[in-house]
Amino acid sequence: MAVGLAALLDDIAAFAKLAAASVDDIGAAAGRASVKATGVVIDDTAVTPQYVAGLAAKRELPVIKRIAMGSLRNKLLFILPAALLLSQFLPWLLTPLLMVGGAYLAFEGAEKLWEMVSGKHGEAVDDAAAKKAVDEDSVVSSAVRTDFILSAEIMVIALNEVAAEGFWARAIILVVVALLITAVVYGIVGLIVKMDDIGLHLAGRETGWVKSFGHGLVKAMPRVMAVISIVGTVAMLWVGGHILLQGTYDLGWHAPYDLLHVLEDAVHGVPAVGGFLVWLVDTLGSAIIGVVAGAVVVTVVHFIPRKNKHH
C-alpha cells in the first residue's frame, strides 16, 4: 500500500508540474499576444475618453463601467467564439470581416472629422432629463460599437500570435488577453477622465506645491481631453485604414501596401530617426486610406440619401 501511495503522490507531483508549466506557457503566450496588440490597445485607450466628454462628473465612471462591460461581452461572448470557429473552419472569412470593421472605423473617424470641420454635432435635445438619458445610452451604444471593431482587431492579432497552439490553449490564451486588455484600457480611461476631480482634491490641500499642482491639473484637463478627442479620431482613421490596407494585401491586391513599404524603406536608413520615420509613414499612409474610405462611406450614408430625398 505504501508503494502504491508513493506512486500516486509521484503521479500527482508530476501532474502538478505539468499543469504549472502549462500555466506558465499560457501566461507567456498571453503576454506575447498582448504586446503584439499594443498599437490597437493605445488607439482604444485614446478613442474611449471622447465618448464621456460632456457628461456630468458623477456619471463618468458609471458610463465607463457600462462601456467596459460591453467591451468584455464583445470579446468573450461574440468575438472570441467567432474568431476561434472561423480560424478552425473558415479562416479565409476573417480578413473580409475585419475589413468591414475597418470600413466602419474609417466611417466613424471621417464623420467626426466632418463634424469638426462643419461645426455640426447632431441635433439638440431640449428636455434636460431626456438629454441625459439619450446621451448616456447613445454614448454607451456608440462606444461599444466602436470597441467591437478595435476588440476584434486585438483578438485577431492575438489569435495570429498563438495560431500554432491547440484549440483549447488558444481559447484560454484569448480569454486571458481579453480580461487583461479590458482591465488595462478602461482602468487608464477611468484615470484619465477623473484627473480633473483628482486635481480638485489636490487643490484643496494645504501644502503649497500640492495645491498649485492641483490647480494646474484642473486647468490643463479640458485641453488634455480636447487633444485626446483629436487623437481618438485620428486613431479611428489610422486603425481603420491599416485594417483595409492589410486586408487588401491579404486578399491579393498588393499595390497599396507595396507602395507604402517602398516609402518606409526610403526613410528607414535615416540616422537616429529612421525607426520613427518608418512609423510615421505607416501611420500617415494608413490614416490617408482611412480618410478616403471613410469619406466614401460618409457620402453614401449621409449625402446621397439626402440628395435623393431632396429631388
Which secondary structure elements does this structure contain, and how are they paired or packed?
Layout: H1 2-36, H2 38-47, H3 57-89, H4 94-118, H5 128-161, H6 167-193, H7 195-203, H8 208-250, H9 255-268, H10 274-310
Helix pairs in contact: 1-5, 1-6, 2-5, 2-6, 2-8, 3-5, 3-6, 4-5, 4-8, 4-10, 5-6, 7-8, 8-10, 9-10
What keywords describe this structure?
mainly alpha; globular; 311 residues; 0% strand; disordered N terminus
Determine the oligomeric state from the structure.
single chain
- Tally of DSSP helical segments: 10
Q: Structural class from helices and strands? A: mainly alpha
- Rg, Cα atoms, Å: 24 Å
Structure characterization notes:
With 311 residues, the protein is mainly alpha-helical. Helix content is 86%, strand content 0%. The chain is built from 10 helices and no strands. α2 packs antiparallel against α5. The chain is globular.
Summarize the structure.
86% of the residues lie in helices and 0% in strands. It has 311 residues and is an all-alpha fold.
